[in-house]
Amino acid sequence: MMKYAVSTPTFDGPFDLLLHLILREEVDIHEISLSNIVTAYLEEVSRMPTVDLDLATEFLLIAATLIELKTRRLLPGKDDGDLDEELALWEERDLLLARLLDCKTFKDVASVFSDLVSRADLSFPRMAGPEERFASLMPDLLEGVSPLRLQRAYLRAAAQKPPKVIGLEHVAPIRASVAEALVTVSDRLRIDGKTTFRRLVDGVTDRIEIVVRFLAILELFKQGRVDLGQVERFGEIEVIWLGIEQDGVVTDNYEG
Amino acid sequence: MTDNESTLDPEIVRALEAILLVAMEPVAPALLAQLLEISQTLVEELCERLAATYEAAGHGFQLVKVAGGFRFQSHPDLAPYVERFVLDGQQSRVSSAALETLAIIAYKQPLSRSQIAAIRGVDPEAVMRTLQARGYITEVERDDGPGQAVMFGTTPLFLERLGIASIDHLPSIADFIPDASVVEALEQGLRITPDDVPAPEA
Amino acid sequence: MTDNESTLDPEIVRALEAILLVAMEPVAPALLAQLLEISQTLVEELCERLAATYEAAGHGFQLVKVAGGFRFQSHPDLAPYVERFVLDGQQSRVSSAALETLAIIAYKQPLSRSQIAAIRGVDPEAVMRTLQARGYITEVERDDGPGQAVMFGTTPLFLERLGIASIDHLPSIADFIPDASVVEALEQGLRITPDDVPAPEA
């Protein structure tokens, strides 16, 4: 009934998903296409009864990080030995690795907790309390509680359940950018017909912008609206507009 | 001694002890008979025998029959110690969680634990046991529906402590909007079994 | 066996049983010691002896140390019977997301919500709100740093839920650090080494 609870034995939280994908398929960020990760993710999602927005957006965040790691190597001018960039890249990777390890550790601990809880559940505590003959000695818990205070407590309880707040502060820029990028990139492609990724990001300096344009291209590819080609690794990525314009570009995935 | 007894599974006696230990109120022999799948006569007999055993062993607790049911209680000899414990060892102010739960019961009674859980968004079990032990709420009836949920309501002691003559004298909540969401949750609580309710997001 | 014991009034043991029977939550040895006017060590010893006696006698209840205190509870063997009886009182399930958050808090406490988020990879707000409402975690202190983040820790109720006596009884975190093969697999998964740069055959 509370919509954002997604928990299946195989899926619980985006880091876990990444763990799962990496450990199972030995996903190599560099050698395996990101679209495989995305496809695997979508398959995973389709198996879930409901989609958790938190998890979905967090996955995007991680996907973006991964894509960023990858695009740093793919993008023109990014692999020509800038030591600082290289170090930053390692730092990011190590951070991600540390988080994944932490995540795995606590996931394992949680399963031990789960066993402890199941064992504890077999026993029921005695909670009946003192017999009525001691009642007069029991401190009156309601001392100082007026009918008005009880009414306020009721209204407080009735009003609780604040709507779920989604932490947009870290997600919003990415979400907005991808949706925008889809439009920008489609507009450009509609005019150019055939171009390269390099040209599509020409003049874009913000790294995250480049990442989301890459995401947008992947999305268009998934929707069958563009064809992609790359003659050699780290070579130019050709983007060819297929011009299928059924019902507009689907951007729903990126709108909360 | 009955005929049954010679073939009695010793586990039945242990189960009897276990049920009586966790019970909040005296348990009727009829219910015990049903739970243990033995006759009511045998229940009575076993309880009496247990009571005698505890007394002979000199335990600090006893098994007694009160209000038509059996229950564990502290031995009267030890009342001075229990009194000291009650005076010294008990929490003396109501928590806001307990007060909110009590308020929901006061205004919406009778209602089941799962209905309260649906309103509160969390399982009120621990809080309700405290309220029950303090004598502010009590089981009032069982729901007719499937599962026969226990329904709770407030007690005369509650009214007394609050200084009002009847539950109708509580300040009205009808004019407040949040009440609508409670009504909805109440309906939801009726359809859901207790262990589904408690905060699935946790 | 202590020196005290030879001179111990048998009433002390009975009083101990009586107090534990009327308690609504685990009773700390320090409180028992104060009420019974004996040493805390002796309290612990008497409780352990009582627990062993109950077990040996095959009672349907047990005395256990949980969440820093002693309490009576039904014997785990008899869960099927007791569950039938408490039908409404089923313990609510704790989801794996909640358990993971609890695990992080249990081992790293005190820590802030954003520190938990950094480990979990998701904003734990909803889960934490539920854990807090259910009384498994609580705000413990405020960070001294700028912004004064609220810090969280686990509660005695959490220990009760896990059925352990104290936080020190949690399994050592060192046993859960992923082994080399897992680290390697993860490292492999995130590999971005320069030797991936254009292989001749690509």
What would you say this structure looks like, in words?
The complex is a heterotrimer, with one copy of chain A (256 residues) and two copies of chain B (202 residues). In chain A, helix 1 packs across helix 4. In chain A, a hairpin with a 6-residue loop joins strand 2 and strand 3. With 256 residues, chain A is mainly alpha-helical. Chain A has a three-stranded antiparallel beta sheet with strand order 1-3-2. Chain B is α+β, with helices and mostly antiparallel strands. Chain B has two domains: 67 residues, Arc Repressor Mutant, subunit A (Orthogonal Bundle); 94 residues, Winged helix-like DNA-binding domain superfamily/Winged helix DNA-binding domain (Arc Repressor Mutant, subunit A), CATH 1.10.10. Chain B is 51% helix and 12% strand. Chain B contains ten helices and five strands; from the N terminus they run ααααββααβααββαα. In chain B, a hairpin with a 2-residue loop joins strand 1 and strand 2. The chains are: A mainly alpha (256), B alpha+beta (202). Chains in contact: A-B, A-C, B-C. At the A-C interface, helix 1, helix 3 and helix 4 of A face strand 1, strand 2, helix 5, helix 6 and helix 7 of C.
Short summary of the structure?
The complex is a heterotrimer, with 1 copy of chain A (256 residues) and 2 copies of chain B (202 residues). With 256 residues, chain A is mainly alpha-helical. Chain A has 8 helices and 3 strands; from the N terminus they run ααααααβααββ.
Keywords:
heterotrimer, A: 256 residues, mainly alpha, Arc Repressor Mutant, subunit A, 3-stranded antiparallel β-sheet, 8 helices, 3 strands, elongated, disordered C terminus, B: 202 residues, alpha+beta, 2 domains, two-stranded antiparallel sheet, 10 helices, 12% strand, globular, cell division (chains B, C), chromosome partition (chains B, C), WH-like_DNA-bd_sf (chains B, C)
Blueprint (SSEs and pairs):
The complex is a heterotrimer, with one copy of chain A (256 residues) and two copies of chain B (202 residues).
Chain A: H1 14-25, H2 34-47, H3 53-74, H4 83-120, H5 147-159, H6 172-192, E1 194-196, H7 197-200, H8 207-222, E2 226-230, E3 237-241
Antiparallel strand pairs in A: 1-3, 2-3
Chain B: H1 3-6, H2 10-22, H3 29-36, H4 40-57, E1 61-66, E2 69-74, H5 79-88, H6 96-108, E3 111-112, H7 113-120, H8 125-133, E4 137-142, E5 150-154, H9 156-162, H10 178-191
Antiparallel strand pairs in B: 1-2, 3-5, 4-5
Keywords (chains B, C): Cell cycle, Cell division, Chromosome partition, Cytoplasm
Pfam family, one (chains B, C): SMC_ScpB
InterPro entries (chain A): ScpA (IPR003768), ScpA-like_C (IPR023093)
